[in-house]
Design goal:
Residues 24-137 form the Gfo/Idh/MocA-like oxidoreductase N-terminal domain. InterPro entries: Gfo/Idh/MocA-like_OxRdtase_C, Gfo/Idh/MocA-like_OxRdtase_N, Gfo/Idh/MocA_Oxidoreductase, NAD(P)-bd_dom_sf. This is Glucose-fructose oxidoreductase. Residues 170-361 form the Gfo/Idh/MocA-like oxidoreductase C-terminal domain. The structure is a single chain. The protein has 384 residues and is α/β, with parallel strands linked by helices. The protein folds into 2 domains: 3-139, NAD(P)-binding Rossmann-like Domain (Rossmann fold, 3-Layer(aba) Sandwich), CATH 3.40.50.720; 143-281 and 339-375, 2-Layer Sandwich (Dihydrodipicolinate Reductase, domain 2), CATH 3.30.360. Helices cover 34% and strands 21% of the residues. It is built from 11 helices and 17 strands. The protein has a 9-stranded mixed beta sheet with strand order 16-15-14-13-7-12-11-8-17. Strands 3-2-1-4-5-6 form a 6-stranded parallel beta sheet, with helices on both faces. The longest helix has 20 residues, at 336-355. The chain is globular and about 60 Å long.
Amino acid sequence: MTDRIALVGTGADPDDPDSDGFAMAYRHAAGYQRIDGCELVACADIVRENAEAFADAHDISAKGVYEDYETMLSEVEPDVVSVTVPPAIHADIVVGCAETEIPDAIHCEKPMATSWADCRRMADACDDAGIRLTINHQRRTGPIFREAKSLLDEGAIGDLRRIEWSTKNLFDAGTHLFDLSMFYTDETAVEWVLAGLDYREENRWFGTHNENQAIAQWKYENGVYGLAATGRGSDLIDPYLALSGTDGRIELGASDGAPLRYRSSDTSGWKAVDTDENVWGDPLPSKFRAGLDLAAQRVPGVPDDLFGVDYPSHIDRAIAEVIRAHRTESDSVLDASVALKGTELIFAAYESVRRRGRVDLPLTVDDNPLESMVEEGLVAVGAE
């Protein structure tokens, strides 16, 4: 079996010192190239030079280079398409791909889209066309996060009562953590969201507004609470992510460097959990490997990575999950129907700021409340 892969939005080569942005297409491509039976056959970018550089880097023939993705789809007819353009145009391109009814599967970068209406529009268009849409919330596939889920499911900390996390913002970075929060609660519905934020300095990530600082609280129907702190106030919560239960606590990415640990009435203090990676998916070598690497660095003429291993990243694992679900025609933890649940909390948090009060779900607005508040001058961008 061979799956023909095409990518929309190559960006500039991240290894080029003159590059002006990071290109996720290169990371998606690396994931596909690890899988037997996946062939990169085409790419499209409105900047032809970028598409040509990408094609050259991944052995795609000149015939597979396009500036228009619709022409690419009609001429190449790929099985799977990765959409790796900036978030503001995710929806239009995903919907455009779906309306051709050519690919069997579309894998789109996160965040899903820049408005709540566009998120739903993407999912609906793919459902109507019978095309699987997945979103690159790759942390769900990371062993460190799945090991924490196993600890939780095995009752290591009793019943879950609270999820806490800290990151740079609620939208671009927070989308991963809202998604993981749904993962750890088995996709339990959320009752309400309450949030506040500060946006005194313009902060655009890939063209989209993100707050400077926020705090958000939400409650699941099963009684579990969520708490998030972002930006300048993110040190309110020490680990990257924590799960508190009736009999203990699990922490991932603590500030003292512990990748994964937990404590409960059955442990004497914190118990470290063996892991091959940190929360970002970077490999953590064993003491033996670390010693070999250090020795290599001290020997003139010996490459620093002499003892390196080909370790899969979170994105590599996510791409493998996309292909697994495509080939087996089965559900995926990355399905758009799953991603929508966490993504709704982002826009609900921003809507809470706009309303200056609690927002009960399901969310009934269509826009991106933060973007709308910026456009209407309702947040203090430029304030001292």
